[in-house]
């Protein structure tokens, strides 16, 4: 594996992380070595590699400017040294393992200046294990140094963090990744174009390990890596495709746009990568509009609106629809096939009277539309206010039911519900409700309450808007009285962390009384003002509301 073969063995070979490297080398040069360090940052940013280089330099007999000499006995035997202990907290996270570690800490190093413990993924340790480790961190032996690494610093107790020197590792820049990819390709006699190297770096999203792993995968079948190899193996989208699509939008070429989206729908490309690249193209164009004052069929505000619209598509996608269908509709919203004018959907209400007047010069119709304009705007404002009120009610109910579920949460009840939940898709529950629940899970439960977690926030909102109706079916499905609430995965992780924190600090949950809401949050639908205007203007049997 390339990421192992080219793992740095000295500070000078570590790519990026200049601040951390400088501070660690200064500590060695000055002899001011702390007893505990914690390295935090995204995966593949060099935390564990830096920990090993640091440990090697600490025990070096003749360090040069904070760098291991590589020639002394300690450096030569570093990889097999019994004084460098690596621990994977993901699989050794229990209190028994930590107690064994503490017992071994008391033993002096065999052939080195220090006994160094490198603990990877330290956030995976249990609370009891952290408590046991804390005792040693408070009064460590002089010959012991701890170097911990984590991708989730928020899960490490503050009592541990306060006893460590913290170093934050950043994602690698595109330039740093491209440089290292080219270096490895040169050493391995692999031909790669700059475009291909840049694409690998882009897909890796700042992670060196991901970049070298993908490079290794591609090189196993060929010694010449092209952009076509990468696109066919990664689900990425070529920059040329993105630029052509955007140009077609600017030129209002609907047929070309539809053809490109048809190609995307039939491909295996990742829609998230597509959205990310398309947004980057839009942002660059928006900057050009601001700095060069060039004329364009799309204004700066429309570009910005399209960017936010594409970003929102991320939250709307579910398993029942091709993601590119939503993206296609969002893009087409900014194209007009009848002229070079761009449609501004936000201004459609303000120009409704003008469009109707152009189609029909009848004075009565024109007056009717004009007089109804204020009513239309008022209707939309009322709908927005009603939706805000519904969301506020949901937030209140969510807060109360989460609290009440945590108040008497029981593992055995949760396991029983989860076992039954596997059969939800084949239950007699209506299909529209099944479609909302099929990609969700029960993540917490008591005898009276249960929390449902979904991947998307938008799905959680839809479930909660119909929660009273849905829980009637679920109570029948589980054959017991339960109150439910839905959270997105992100919300659930946040609530879980807060729950753990409160329990650690001795917080006692108390049952809260639910407010009285309507049976359904969704108000009954009625004819909008726009529909009334249409019905007065045209024959009723000629109107089709879509």
Summarize the structure.
This protein has 546 residues and is of the alpha/beta class.
Descriptive keywords:
546 residues; alpha/beta; three-stranded mixed β-sheet; disordered C terminus
What does this structure look like?
- There is one protein chain.
- The protein has 546 residues and is α/β, with parallel strands linked by helices.
- 54% of the residues lie in helices and 9% in strands.
- Strand 3 (115-120), helix 6 and strand 4 (144-150) form a beta-alpha-beta unit.
- Helix 9 crosses helix 10 (208-219) and helix 12 (239-250) runs antiparallel to helix 13 (254-265).
- It is flat.
- The two termini are 56 Å apart.
- Residues 339-362 and 522-546 have low confidence and may be disordered.
- Mean pLDDT over all positions: 79
Low-confidence stretches: 339-362, 522-546
Main sheet: strands, sense, barrel? 5 strands, parallel
What is the strand tally?
Answer: 10
- Give the termini distance in whole angstroms: 56 Å
User: Judging from the principal axes of the Cα atoms, what is the shape?
Assistant: flat
Determine the number of helices (DSSP H or I, runs of at least 4 residues). Answer: 24
The portion of residues assigned to helices is: 40-55%
Beta fraction? 5-15%
Q: What structural class results from the helix and strand content?
A: alpha/beta
């Amino acid at each position: 594996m390339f990421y192992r073969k080219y793992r740095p063995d000295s500070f000078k070979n570590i790519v990026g992380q200049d601040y951390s490297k400088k501070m660690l080398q200064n500590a060695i040069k000055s002899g001011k070595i702390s007893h505990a360090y914690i390295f935090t940052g995204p995966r593949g940013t060099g935390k564990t590699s830096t920990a090993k280089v640091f440990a090697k330099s600490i025990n070096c007999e003749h360090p040069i400017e904070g760098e291991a000499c590589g020639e002394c006995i300690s450096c030569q035997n570093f990889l097999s040294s019994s004084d460098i202990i690596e621990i994977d907290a993901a699989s050794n996270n229990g209190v028994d393992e930590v107690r064994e570690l503490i017992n071994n800490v008391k033993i002096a190093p065999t052939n080195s200046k220090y006994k160094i413990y490198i603990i990877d993924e330290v956030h995976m340790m249990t609370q009891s294990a952290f408590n046991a480790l804390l005792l040693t961190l408070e009064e460590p032996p002089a010959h012991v140094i701890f170097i911990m690494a984590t991708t989730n610093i928020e899960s490490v107790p503050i009592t541990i963090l306060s006893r460590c020197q913290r170093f934050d590792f950043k994602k690698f820049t595109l330039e740093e990744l491209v440089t290292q990819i080219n270096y490895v390709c040169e050493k391995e006699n692999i031909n790669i174009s700059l475009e291909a190297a840049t694409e690998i770096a882009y897909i890796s999203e700042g992670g060196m390990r991901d970049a070298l792993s993908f490079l290794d995968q591609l090189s196993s079948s060929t010694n010449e890596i092209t952009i076509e190899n990468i696109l066919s193996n990664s689900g990425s989208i070529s920059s040329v495709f993105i630029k052509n699509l955007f140009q077609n939008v600017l030129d209002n070429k609907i047929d070309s746009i539809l053809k490109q989206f048809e190609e995307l729908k039939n491909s295996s490309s990742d829609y998230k990568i597509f959205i990310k690249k398309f947004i980057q193209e839009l942002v660059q164009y928006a900057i050009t509009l601001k700095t060069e004052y060039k004329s364009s069929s799309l204004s700066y505000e429309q570009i910005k609106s399209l960017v936010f619209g594409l970003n929102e598509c991320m939250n709307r996608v579910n398993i029942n629809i091709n993601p590119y269908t939503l993206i296609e509709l969002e893009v087409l919203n900014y194209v007009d096939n009848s002229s070079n004018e761009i449609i501004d959907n936000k201004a459609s209400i303000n120009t409704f009277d003008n469009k109707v007047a152009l189609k029909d010069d009848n004075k009565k119709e024109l007056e009717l539309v004009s007089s109804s304009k204020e009513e239309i705007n008022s209707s939309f404002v009322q709908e927005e206010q009603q939706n805000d009120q519904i969301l506020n009610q949901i937030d209140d109910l969510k807060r109360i039911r989460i609290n009440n579920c945590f108040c008497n949460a029981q593992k055995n009840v949760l396991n029983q519900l989860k076992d039954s939940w596997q059969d939800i898709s084949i239950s007699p529950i209506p299909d529209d409700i099944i479609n909302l629940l099929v990609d969700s899970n029960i993540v917490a439960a008591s005898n009276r309450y249960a929390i449902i977690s979904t991947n998307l926030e938008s799905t959680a909102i839809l479930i909660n808007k119909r929660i009273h109706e849905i829980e009637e079916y679920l109570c029948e499905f589980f054959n017991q009285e339960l109150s439910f609430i839905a959270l997105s995965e992100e919300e659930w992780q946040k609530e879980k962390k807060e729950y753990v924190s409160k329990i650690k600090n001795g917080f006692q949950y108390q049952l809260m009384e639910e407010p009285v809401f309507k049976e359904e949050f969704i108000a009954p639908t009625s004819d909008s003002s726009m529909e009334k205007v249409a019905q007065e203007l045209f024959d009723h049997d000629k109107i089709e509301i879509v």
